[in-house]
Amino acid sequence: MPVSWIGILLVAGLASIGSCSAAAVEYDANAVIINGQRKIILSGSIHYPRSTVEMWSDLIQKAKAGGIDAIETYIFWNAHEPRRREYNFAGNLDFVQFFQKVQEAGLYGILRIGPYACAEWNYGGFPVWLHNIPGIKFRTDNEIFKNEMQTFTTKIVNMAKEAKLFASQGGPVILAQIENEYGNVMGSYGEAGKSYVKWCAQMAVAQNIGVPWIMCQQSDAPSPVINTCNGFYCDTFTPNNPTSPKMWTENWTGWFKKWGQKDPHRTAEDLAFAVARFFQYGGVLQNYYMYHGGTNFGRTSGGPFITTSYDYDAPLDEYGNLNQPKWGHLKNLHAALKLGENVLTNSTVKSTKYSDGWAELTTYTSNINGERFCFLSNTKMDDLDVDLQQDGKYFVPAWSVSILQGCNKEIHSTAKVNVQTSLIVKKLHENDKPQKLSWVWAAEPIKTPLHGRGRFKASQLIEQKAATNDETDYLWYMTRDDSKKIFHPHCHSMQYRVDNNKTASQNMTLRVKYSGQFLHAFVNGKEIGSQHDYGFTFEKPVLLKPGTNVISLLSVTVGLQNYGEFFDEGPEGIAGGPVELVDSSNTTTNLSTNEWSYKVGLIGEGRGRRFYDPTSGRAKWISGKLRVGRAMTWYKTTFQAPSGTEPVVVDLQGMGKGHAWVNGNSLGRFWPTETADPNGCDGKCDYRGKYKDSKCLSNCGNPTQRWYHVPRSFLNNGSNTLILFDEIGGNPSDVSFQITATETICGNAYEGSTLELSCNSEQRIISGIQYASFGDPQGSCGSFQKGSIEASSSLSAVEKACIGKDSCSINVSKTTFGVKDSFGVDNNRLAVQAVCTGYNENDEENHTQKKEN
Ligand SMILES: *[C@@H]1O[C@H](CO)[C@@H](O)[C@H](O)[C@H]1NC(C)=O
Ligand SMILES: *[C@@H]1O[C@H](CO)[C@@H](O)[C@H](O)[C@H]1NC(C)=O
Ligand SMILES: *[C@@H]1O[C@H](CO)[C@@H](O)[C@H](O)[C@H]1NC(C)=O
Ligand SMILES: *[C@@H]1O[C@H](CO)[C@@H](O)[C@H](O)[C@H]1NC(C)=O
Ligand SMILES: *[C@@H]1O[C@H](CO)[C@@H](O)[C@H](O)[C@H]1NC(C)=O
Ligand SMILES: *[C@@H]1O[C@H](CO)[C@@H](O)[C@H](O)[C@H]1NC(C)=O
Ligand SMILES: *[C@@H]1O[C@H](CO)[C@@H](O)[C@H](O)[C@H]1NC(C)=O
Ligand SMILES: *[C@@H]1O[C@H](CO)[C@@H](O)[C@H](O)[C@H]1NC(C)=O
Ligand SMILES: CC(=O)N[C@H]1CO[C@H](CO)[C@@H](O)[C@@H]1O
User: Fold this and answer.
1) What spacing in Å lies between the alpha carbon of 503 and ligand 2's midpoint?
2) Residue 250 is among the residues annotated as catalytic for this protein
3) Ligand 6 pocket residue status of 716, Cβ below 6 Å
4) What is the pLDDT, as a whole number, of residue 251?
5) Among 100, 212, 459, 685, fewest CB within 10 Å belongs to which?
6) Where would I find the SUEL-type lectin domain in this sequence (predicted)?
């Protein structure tokens, strides 16, 4: 428990955030001190490149409305410096504008420069050209690396300084981070790792930004850099320096998703429990990773095999909709914690255990006025009753924390969710008719690679990152000459030992040791097979003809690795192989040192890999009979944007695997044929007990990702163009554009609270109440049932309060339902299930009704 009170003055300053004057950011073990005000900070991660500029303000406002004080983001080096000393800060890479919007909203910012980001982002945020510098070693005491890291860090710091982003200059940024989770892997880097961390701290501190630097998961963070915790729970974490505040930079709100996996969920109750426990044990700053996960547009997803959606089951969903009840439940928790802020940040702490130690009361008593603030936790899997004598008796649900204002009034229980659950659906907008999309197609020209002709040659199997600089997922490896050796023994191939009739065909096995993600193999122009996994040995029978045979291997990356010790050095592609031919008597011919011919990327990707048009050569879009189920096919269609303002998705059901673009903007990789294991979604989700990523799974047996976000700003009012490249074969006939909308909402609130219901859109109204019961209703959203008692006015009271409105609130009290004081049990509650529908602007009657409300 932190008890030290030594403040470290970092910057002197006056005035408050929001104005243009400088703010002092100081800290001690119990508070972040901004302009002399002692604070606890509730922060949330929103990564600027995972949404669009047009979405930023709305996301930030929703975070603010959810009780968030600060927005945290990484900086993504490979996005900003795609080629050495060529920088890009345009569009959604304009991090300065992002932080300006954070400030406009009156929030603080946390700038995680890294520049290693991890973040399930391609290659952890490192540029691949960096890897290709001879002699470089990442994240260790290597001059070349340190030099590049310092150059980039300085560039970012200078941009931030120039825009006056640091709180010391009047900006929003109160903390900055150098490196990232290095402590998790440092052991593998030996002494060089230790000196590297010291250098990082020194280099960062010398940037003189006027606000504190942090390092996460770094138990030896050199002072004055503060070490912080990442994880699902950080209650037992202690900073290495007794004067450092306890900060949790990554409390995982859910988990990311990989192709072929089920959807992980973390319950609102467990997340709230973890946060409340952190503050119970002296936490000062905590950050939700992620508060909005968003989308891995383009080729930004890491992994390998991270999906395009980076929803993360965060409080704001991928599209920016409120993920309820998580968003609202945390909002209530934040409000409760803030009521204790003054006490928590300058107090004396005492802890008492109850119920065989399962329950723990932590009492904070203000050093200023003696005011008290308590956390009463229960880490057992069963409910407990705890008697605090003169402070009252409390029912403490299993695996929960109750927050007691004045230590005698429960203002929040992490296990009692009093907010609505929203079921968000993808559907056609009510005003729209289904569009019949008409498609044209073009085959990716692959004759040249199938004939073994590339752009450059080498007598070895080159590592893929070295060959492509990661400017594309695709690399062709081709060889033909050595096949001649096989069938012409006089060409002095020493390996050739097959007792062969040189004029006959021969059955052999092609064997490829593969370090990439997806391999397509062709022999003499025919695909002989494809396979995907985390590195594997590909083995397929091939019939070699007499004379020259051509082996063409297309290696495809699906996100470069982003985590682990030396992850940057992991080979990609065929990388050295070996590639071998094995005959029936098991004689092996090693083709690894053959002359290999290479071609980087697809013809359709075009120059600079930003223009997607396979017909830029001689090919043409074909509008005749649609080619379906054939690999390496491009498709194009035009469409009208769905009505309204709700987020748009494209349903790519029927497509195989590839990449999608709308009006030239990449939506990311798609792969609907990759489905999740059909087993393991038992529908049960017990919030109790430690979170595991095998808990609370959904989407078993379905495509890992069927819908792809099309931000509204990608669309225009007239005709829009969708281009799809399908690498494995698909059928675009079922592709359609939909909106995401809150359709069914459920509320479940205890007596004494207020139930707020909202359709989460000004364009949707509550059109019907499917179920309402005040009493002891049973079941959950979608399957509520009447309990043993029910107020007869339940339905009419809720209808009266809500129908025709986009949101409504109901005081859950006996008065509201006109029942006697003797009605019901101790824990009366109200359960409601309502339907939201699109509000038609032409509908005068409903329009008037809505206006009046
Ligand atoms: C805490 O409050 C006491 C009493 O007002 C005050 O003397 C002390 O300076 C405060 N401590 C900090 C670190 O602000
Ligand atoms: C060699 O090939 C020729 C022509 O295909 C065939 O007639 C002959 O039987 C083959 N000899 C052997 C030993 O397989
Ligand atoms: C190759 O194998 C296939 C299937 O086992 C067989 O039908 C064919 O006759 C074989 N061809 C040669 C040339 O051995
Ligand atoms: C072929 O060789 C491999 C090792 O090179 C061995 O494991 C395998 O058993 C051999 N198979 C036959 C049929 O001899
Ligand atoms: C194949 O050749 C490569 C390049 O010479 C060599 O590194 C590798 O060890 C060889 N593999 C086998 C199985 O002989
Ligand atoms: C598109 O239509 C909407 C509503 O009709 C309008 O508000 C908006 O300005 C239009 N946008 C453009 C780019 O024309
Ligand atoms: C008004 O809205 C409700 C719910 O969406 C609908 O049932 C009703 O038909 C609408 N009224 C008119 C006149 O369209
Ligand atoms: C709900 O209760 C609050 C506080 O008791 C009161 O201010 C508000 O008017 C009530 N709302 C309704 C709709 O009864
Ligand atoms: C990095 C880190 O703290 N990881 C922890 C996250 O939480 C899980 C579950 O509690 C732990 O097992 C990890 O060690």
Assistant:
1) 7
2) yes
3) yes
4) 63
5) 459
6) 749-837
- 591: domain CATH number is 2.60.120.260
Residue 7 has pLDDT above 70, yes or no: no
**What is the helix (H) or strand (E) element at residue 412, kind and residue range?**
strand 409-413
pLDDT digits (tens, 9 = 90+) for 745-777: 999 888 888 999 999 888 899 999 999 999 999
Which residue out of 81, 148, 179, 250 is catalytically annotated?
A: 250
Question: Is 347 a member of any domain?
Answer: no
Measured by CA distance, the residue closest to atom 4 of ligand 9 is 231
Residue 594 in contact with residue 459, Cβ under 8 Å? yes
Number of separate domains in the chain: 3
Secondary-structure percent of the chain, ordered helix, strand, coil, rounded to 5: 20, 35, 45
How many angstroms separate the alpha carbon of residue 717 from the centre of ligand 6? 6
162 is catalytic: no
The CATH number of whichever domain residue 186 belongs to comes to 3.20.20.80
| Bridge partners of residue 849, in order along the sequence | none
Nearest protein CA to atom 8 of ligand 7, as residue:
846
Q: Are residues 308 and 453 in the same domain?
A: no
Domain boundary at 601, 630, 652, which?
Answer: 601
- Which of 72, 81, 120, 181 is an active site residue? 181
* End residue of a domain, out of 586, 601, 616: 601
Ligand 5 centroid to 138 CA: how many Å? 28
Neighbours of 144 (CB within 10 A): 14
Domain ranges, residue 563:
447-601
CATH number at 816 reads 2.60.120.740
Which pLDDT band holds residue 424 (cuts at 50, 70, 90)? very high
Q: What is the pLDDT of residues 387-415, one digit of tens each?
A: 999 999 999 999 999 999 999 999 999 99
- Tokens of residue 789, six digits: 């008692």
Return the DSSP state at 678.
S
Q: Is 782 among the domain residues?
A: yes
Write the residue with the smallest CA distance to atom 8 of ligand 5.
Answer: 578
The answer to whether residues 309 and 451 belong to one domain is no
pLDDT for 533-573, tens place per residue? 999 999 999 998 877 889 999 999 999 999 989 999 999 99
The string of pLDDT tens digits covering residues 428-442 is 998 899 999 999 999
788 touches ligand 6 (CB under 6 Å): no
Tell me the C-alpha distance between 168 and 190, whole Å: 36
pLDDT for residue 607: 58
In a domain, 507, yes or no: yes
Closest approach atom of ligand 9 to CA 230? 3
- The answer to whether position 703 is within a domain reads no
- Backbone dihedral region of 261: left (phi > 0), alpha (psi from -120 to 50 degrees) or beta? beta
* H/E segment holding residue 287: strand 283-292
> Residue 623, CB half-sphere, CA atoms under 13 Å: how many?
4
- What confidence score (pLDDT) does residue 624 get? 87
